[in-house]
Amino acid sequence: MPGVRNVAIVEAPSVLGLRPTGVEDLASALLGTGLAAALGAEIAGRVEPPPYDPERDAETGVLNPGGIAAYSAALADAVGGVLDGGRFPLVLGGDCSVLLGNLLALRRRDRHGLLFLDGHTDFYQPEAEPAGEVASMELALATGRGPRVLADLEGRGPLVRDADVVALGFRDAEESAAFGMQPLPGALHAMELDTVRALGAAEAARRAVGLLSGDGAGAGYWVHLDVDVLDDALMPAVDYRQPDGLSWQELETILRTALASGTAVGLDVAIFNPRLDPDGTLTRRLADCLVRAFDAGA
């Protein structure tokens, strides 16, 4: 089975969609483990974000809308350069708003899908999101819902169609609904944590890949990994914690299946906060998880 080779790493240390609490150090921390060498990857560049503005935008209700729009275009340029060189982009965030730039790079080229691995569905609208953080809205924005400055980047929105998305492993549906988050649309393929457990991680991943690789599914799919999809007991180094989640082995199985499919075109890692991992144990474990997933997919 074809897999992933010729990986190129793009550093995307933006917290414009969250807060500067430490997530901006994700890329440096993972690279400090020797991740690039372990993957045989080159460093394709670092996209620095514009200054962070802590004031919520009055017109859109979100933090840093203009900055995120500009950053998304710059990140799309970097990711696009990797793709044009025939390489597989591994984007190290950053908060989840970096997904918009990654998907913009794909949308400039063709129709693609999205495997969305996240403990939350991130489908808020600004009026319901308590702090106006785009890191809680990026899936809604990517599917064309929300302020136009972010939901219609470069006039290309939506960046991904509902039917071309599989959201897998989330466990926040009831909690988020209580805050007023809109439900996931019916055409979007939802596999919450209980479904993944009932099917088993391997079967859930195979079904997700099948949905994203079938006829009419586009030219491949992006994989988004928010590390809070992991069990909170195993991955407490995140800013918004909630009980339960995937085991390391379940995550490795899902990533391995996704990367071995031959139709994954890129991967981003977001939300891990190294400042909440003072001895580096979780940083090394996360790097090891990624290496094993890529090795199995090669």
UniProtKB/TrEMBL annotation:
Secreted recorded as keyword: no
* PANTHER family for the chain: ARGINASE (PTHR43782)
Q: Does the keyword Transcription regulation apply?
A: no
Q: Which family does it belong to?
A: Belongs to the arginase family.
Name listed for the protein in its UniProt record: Arginase family protein
Q: What CDD domains would the database entry show?
A: Arginase-like_1
InterPro entries with a match to the protein in the record: Ureohydrolase, Ureohydrolase_dom_sf
Task: Please provide the record's keywords in A-Z order.
Answer: Hydrolase, Manganese, Metal-binding
